[in-house]
């Protein structure tokens, strides 16, 4: 499966990315008009793993009403300033969610399904995962 993205310089420290699927994202080193490139790496990780977790829970017939991935990261002080540690915390809301099902979904995403997470870990980034369940009526 191939993918493509075009990133075009748009002046100053700003770029416009166009995905192969036709979406545009402004990238800005100085945060004037868009996120920084490394924030987008974390965004990609969050999206990838969230899709997994919600999909696994839905297949397990869990009544999920919301899922938020809160991601924090540390970067090296040296150039290149790569990520050294990333923490992914899921806040999963739903009706009568089984903790074992949520734990399983997070684990399966981290260990088997999330391409972004696995790629970063293979590159030496320490990634930790946790979750919290919010019961809704």
Annotation keywords:
single chain; 137 residues; alpha+beta; three-stranded antiparallel sheet; three-stranded mixed sheet; 3 helices; 6 strands; 34% helix; 38% strand; globular
Strand and helix layout:
Elements: E1 5-9, E2 14-19, E3 24-28, H1 37-59, E4 63-75, E5 83-95, H2 99-113, H3 115-122, E6 126-135
Parallel strand pairs: 5-6
Antiparallel strand pairs: 1-2, 2-3, 4-5
Helix pairs in contact: 1-2
Briefly, what is this?
It is built from 3 helices and 6 strands; from the N terminus they run E-E-E-H-E-E-H-H-E. It has 137 residues and is of the alpha+beta class. A hairpin with a 4-residue loop joins strand 1 and strand 2 (14-19).
Would you kindly provide a written description of the structure presented here, covering whatever features stand out?
By secondary structure, this protein is of the alpha+beta class. It has helices at residues 37-59, 99-113, 115-122, and strands spanning 5-9, 14-19, 24-28, 63-75, 83-95, 126-135. Strands 1-2-3 form a 3-stranded antiparallel sheet, with no helix packed on it. It has a 3-stranded mixed sheet with strand order 4-5-6, covered by helices on one side. Strand 4 (63-75) and strand 5 (83-95) form a beta hairpin. It is globular, with a radius of gyration of 17 Å.
